[in-house]
Please model this.
Amino acid sequence: MTWIKTVSMEDDPRVKAAIEAERKLYPQEYATPAPAVDRGFEASIVGSHTLLPDVLFHSFSAFGAMMAPELPLQRRQHEMIATMVSITNRCHY
Model:
């Protein structure tokens, strides 16, 4: 859960457009939520960017480009790298 104000997709068309545009860049397997950790977008790190929709788009479209399916890493490798970075940074996300 974020500790700052967030804006829902339904309340701001700029937020909705930014999220839909950046999600198009993600590999297909990222479209399926993981029920054990999915708390909804407003409670996620993405939700914390909703006050600045342009920043949200550019930050997460960069992530989408790094996850491009034509790159050599598979999702399990992405997840392993993300886990190790989070542990190293002592991040609870």
Summary: The helical segments are 13-23, 53-66, 75-88.
